[in-house]
Amino acid sequence: MDRSRLEAFSDGVFAVAITLLALNLTVAGPSHGHLLHQLRSGSWTFVAYLISFFMIGIVWVNHHVLVRGIAVVDRTLLFLNLVLLLFVVMIPFATATVADYLAFHGQQTPQALLQAHRDTQVAMMLYGTVFLGMSVGFAGIFEWTLHGERMYQRLPADKHWAARARFVGGGLVYVIAIVVALINAVAAFVIIALVAVYYIVERTPDAYKAAAPDSSADAGAPDGS
Amino acid sequence: MDRSRLEAFSDGVFAVAITLLALNLTVAGPSHGHLLHQLRSGSWTFVAYLISFFMIGIVWVNHHVLVRGIAVVDRTLLFLNLVLLLFVVMIPFATATVADYLAFHGQQTPQALLQAHRDTQVAMMLYGTVFLGMSVGFAGIFEWTLHGERMYQRLPADKHWAARARFVGGGLVYVIAIVVALINAVAAFVIIALVAVYYIVERTPDAYKAAAPDSSADAGAPDGS
Amino acid sequence: MDRSRLEAFSDGVFAVAITLLALNLTVAGPSHGHLLHQLRSGSWTFVAYLISFFMIGIVWVNHHVLVRGIAVVDRTLLFLNLVLLLFVVMIPFATATVADYLAFHGQQTPQALLQAHRDTQVAMMLYGTVFLGMSVGFAGIFEWTLHGERMYQRLPADKHWAARARFVGGGLVYVIAIVVALINAVAAFVIIALVAVYYIVERTPDAYKAAAPDSSADAGAPDGS
Amino acid sequence: MDRSRLEAFSDGVFAVAITLLALNLTVAGPSHGHLLHQLRSGSWTFVAYLISFFMIGIVWVNHHVLVRGIAVVDRTLLFLNLVLLLFVVMIPFATATVADYLAFHGQQTPQALLQAHRDTQVAMMLYGTVFLGMSVGFAGIFEWTLHGERMYQRLPADKHWAARARFVGGGLVYVIAIVVALINAVAAFVIIALVAVYYIVERTPDAYKAAAPDSSADAGAPDGS
Lengths: 225, 225, 225, 225
Fold this sequence. Notes:
The structure is a homotetramer.
Chain A: H1 3-20, H2 35-41, H3 43-67, H4 75-88, H5 91-103, H6 110-146, H7 160-181, H8 185-201
């Protein structure tokens, strides 16, 4: 197994998952009220689409930054990569579920209202759990790269924690979001959205920057020199 | 991040989005009247499919022409590319919506007729807005290429505006189409279709032509010499 | 535009279209009668899936055999390729339609029976037309390769017709199938299936055989020497 | 036809099929009872998703290990590869069917209960049959590699059976699972799941291990030296 086909397969899965997200965008169509009203009541769906789209995009970027320095592909790596993709592929489902419950306003009795609140919290915990699972898969790949001669250039031991915070830190935030969802679903949603914003704004540490534009095998990616 | 994986991921998204377009093509099936009638009443769906298919195809071509000259991939470029893809992925949804409203003829009262007209205009504005967003994402990538040492060969300053008109000019047409949709939805549809026809017929300026068939890194793409 | 990205995009579209075919395979599920009965009544769907799957597979093979000898990619080629893909992407829709009508047995009156027959013929003509369109797109690419210095090695003029018969001959069979569908839908189905069988059994003329396993640019593909 | 495009197309199909699996994950949504109940009643769907996801992942790994040593791609190989993909693409359908029947608990009369049991067994046999078909396609590719000068380095004759057991042994287990499904559907499900677990835990025989990380043409893959 060489790295290029691992990348090709993963890219395919990322690309399909990110495109399937948009299948959640629908309107009921003619004879279901004004289209503008339909679009407005679908605004949570759009917000959820936006966040999930950039989350998948960010994971794809981080995946590539990490994987391109890998010199030896073994079965353990392939399995860890599958765990990551297992959760990536679940994002459209979790996104659709959370958007459905955030948008729902059909409750009329106090009991129904309370139940709708609780269901929205459950949906948000599901959403956070999928991202947490993705983060765990990613952390597994990252820890795997730290041992043996698996990278073209090993990350020095004193940089492990900085890189760990960068690649795996999101996982802690998802745990917080899941706990916050027990109190307020929308607050948890905002926390997850902030992870996306953070990764868009943040810059990769130099140690993981690409050395040359078209190098794929010879680039001395993660060394910090 | 090297350019090849940016291309692979983008190509995957383009390929999935262009194929998902065809999911809009359906017939109600047996026991819903003559199949020929069903196909005839689906003709707007087919026209919308045709236009959107070539629009995605054209953006894919332009994306490649622009991206292949890029020497340095940074996080800003990846983010701009995600913005472009965010709208590409929404095209099947916008196409389905516009086709549904163009094809709808169930109005019986004058008020319902007026509402159906307005909804079709809203659907067409949505359609134009998705293309406009795509165009903005593309413009972002284009402007990014003009600065610093990001391309293998920089585009001379005196050619910026010609290239800008070529790559970004469509955006202005989409603004016009959105405004025209306020008056007449079908006229806006024709304008968007003409953009597709223009890009199919037009020839890439020499400056952006490929220099050699299989070169990917060494090709002196955008210099005009 | 270099050839590799044309191939990558086309491969993506072929792969998505061939996989979407399987979305037609469904059963009504529990409480809709015995599963075995459901599967048996879906046998036309399975046959249609099988034929369309191998048709897409064959077009993918032929596409690759033809494209790998191309030295210069221009806008005309990209447009012709999009025409080919436009019809490839419609195959899941045409397959679903033809399977629905072949499987339908709900007619009770003679008039309804006659109508069901006619609708099945229309569905089969649609199916044939999609393959015909695909064939026309393919023929366009083939004719394009015959002119100028577009191939690494030009096909000698005396071999044009043999190659044309091989690559484009299917188109004539689809015309026949469409005409036959006016008389008998199942007979037309058999004719289209025979095209698939023919291309699976048939061997590529030596002139188009690959010269070396991993060569992509240097292979003297279509020369006949 | 060179090997790289065979891999690219196959990777695309694997990636789309593995992502489409997640389309089976859905909840009925608001006003269909507590979300937690809905998620709990979807647990069979999730288990089936998990098993099928890793099965496709494993087949992708094995496909790559086998294909990367192939030196000469001919039409027979392409056809055998299409047979493999034909069944890979059917996995989402078989997974959805088996999950639907495992999860169904609406039977009220003894007859209905008996029928539901039988239908679940039929669904499980369908599930096993799809994997068996995939295994047959894989076995076809494997046997093809043993003859002539098709691999960079031929597998010595005395290692044929060990490799055969590794690559094709799963097929025998699927036959057992299909027979067991006649007695107990869940037991058959466990057997199929164990195949997935086995392949995740198992290590590739040295003979098929990659020799160098980025070699694609020169790697002495299957020789055992």
